[in-house]
Automatic annotation (TrEMBL):
Pfam families: Aldose_epim
Taxonomic superkingdom: Bacteria
E.C. designation(s): 5.1.3.3
Record-linked SUPFAM superfamilies: Galactose mutarotase-like (SSF74650)
Entry keyword annotation includes Nucleus: no
Source organism of this protein record: Alkalibacterium subtropicum
GO molecular function: aldose 1-epimerase activity; carbohydrate binding
Catalytic function, reaction form: alpha-D-glucose = beta-D-glucose
GO BP: galactose catabolic process via UDP-galactose, Leloir pathway; glucose metabolic process
Protein name listed in UniProt: Aldose 1-epimerase
Keywords: Carbohydrate metabolism, Isomerase
Family: Belongs to the aldose epimerase family.
Amino acid sequence: MELTKKVFGQFKNKDVYEYTLTNEAGIAISAIPFGATLTKLVTPDKKGKRENITLNVESLEDFVRHRPFYGATIGRVAGRITKGKFSIDGKEYQVDINEGDNMLHGGPKGLDTKLWTIEVDESAGQLVFTYESKAGENGFPGTMQIKVTYTLTEGNDWVIDYEATTDEATLFNPTNHVYFNLTGDIKQPILDHQLELASSQYIPLAEENLPSEEKASVEGTPFDFQTAKPLKEAVLSDHEQIKQLAGLDHPFVLDKAQDQKGVLYEPESGREVSVYTDRNSAVVFTHNGEVDDYLIEGEPAKQYAGITLETQTLPDAINKEGFGDIILRPGETFRSRTTYHFGTRD
């Protein structure tokens, strides 16, 4: 395992370093403590050519200004909270809204906007990020101690471990917003990527992209990825749920019985990513519009430039019966793990 670091930019007159871990297979993860953000992920293709396979972060200044979420740690609560309202033990809370009338991805000053503390363990292949989220931050109760650990293994895994405690009952449902493009060329769309998901149900979206109360069967719909198929078969379909967004931005309910929750494969490069998680859902988002004001390699990030597999408890779980428990209480420790395994096919 090799570790390098370099100055990536400045935040509030402090140098922010980018740390890169590289394993013997040539897989490298780069990350910065701002937002506990993955900035780049390099893997070899089937011919051994090493390329970045994510929508990368090139400029800290642009990342801070535009907040594209690329590769960032999202929280305290990923996804949307309807009207920014919820109750815990009969007490009602109003958190800060930042998308219409709703809260998105932790609010206007979510975890992706914070400068975390970082510790590096080169021998273990780990970058350990910690952050204290004070009571009242974005309107949430409780002061939280949050730790996110990125591990790169010699077995070609990127492991994300989340750990958190609180001094008052609060909500916690983090994710990582990495976008994959396995071609190694972000100018190429992800429409020919093949996706397989261990999911027999998805959550249709209601108004304002809020999750509905329904867990709908994927059978006979473009949302059926139980057998691998090209993304374009779903993204370009005329299904009403997809047409209104020009693509996917939907939570999929992950089947508990299967260990491997998903596989993303790109035939030309031969690259594949397998996903493992202890969470009950993955939000699949296909970058459905061009981002004019955020440049990658000197150009706006194009429509369908990447795809997320955001592992988390189902969005808006606090307001939806049967979606999962995201309340964290004093004396409890939140722990969750998601693993992305990288390989190739000939």
